Amino acid sequence: MQACDFCGYDGNGDAISFHRFTLEEENRRRWTVNMRRDAEWTPSESASLCSAHFTPDCFESGSAHLHPNAIPTIFDFTQCMIHQGEHKSTDSSCCGCYKRLQATEKVYQLKLAAAQLQIKEYKKNLAEESRKTAKWQKRAIVLQSAIRAMKQRGIIPTTRKTSTPKKY
C-alpha cells in the first residue's frame, strides 16, 4: 500500500494522488530540504508524497500529473512532529526540553541548508547577469569608438543640432 513519506497518509478513499520523488537531482534535493529531512536521508525508489503537499499550480492543467519542475511546499510540521512524538519512545528519563531543543536545532539546520541552496542559486544568477553586463559594456565601448572615428573622418557631424519642441 502506498503512503506519503511525509505525513504517512495512505489516501484511503480520498481523491488524493501520490507522486514519486523526481529523478532530477536538484529538484529531488529541494523536495527533501522542504520536507526538512536529514541531509543523509535519501528517498527510496518507491518514496512518494501525496498531492496535499503541492500547490495547484504544480499540476498540469486539469490533471493529477505534476509539472516536471514541481516542488512541494505545503508541509504542516507541527502535525508531523506531534505524530512522530506519539510513535517515539516514552522513556521517562528523557527531558521534553531536550527533545524540543533537538527538534529546534534540526529545524535551523534544515533552514540553513535551504538558505545555502538559495544563495547558490543567487550566486549563479549574479554571475550570469555580470557576464551579460560585461558583454554590453564592451559593446558600448566599441560603439563609442566607432562614433569617435566617424566624427574624426567627417562621416557624421561633430555637433548635433538640438531641436526645440514646437509650441502648439
From TrEMBL:
Occurrences of domain THAP-type (ranges): 1-75
Protein's organism: Triplophysa rosa (Cave loach)
Ranges annotated as spanning the membrane: none
The keyword 4Fe-4S appears for this protein: no
Protein name: THAP domain-containing protein 1
Taxonomy, superkingdom: Eukaryota
InterPro entries in UniProt: THAP_domain_protein, THAP_Znf
Keywords: Coiled coil, DNA-binding, Metal-binding, Zinc, Zinc-finger
Coiled coil feature spans: 105-139
One GO MF term attached to the UniProt entry: zinc ion binding
Pfam families: THAP (PF05485)
SMART domains: DM3, THAP
Keyword Plastid among UniProt keywords: no
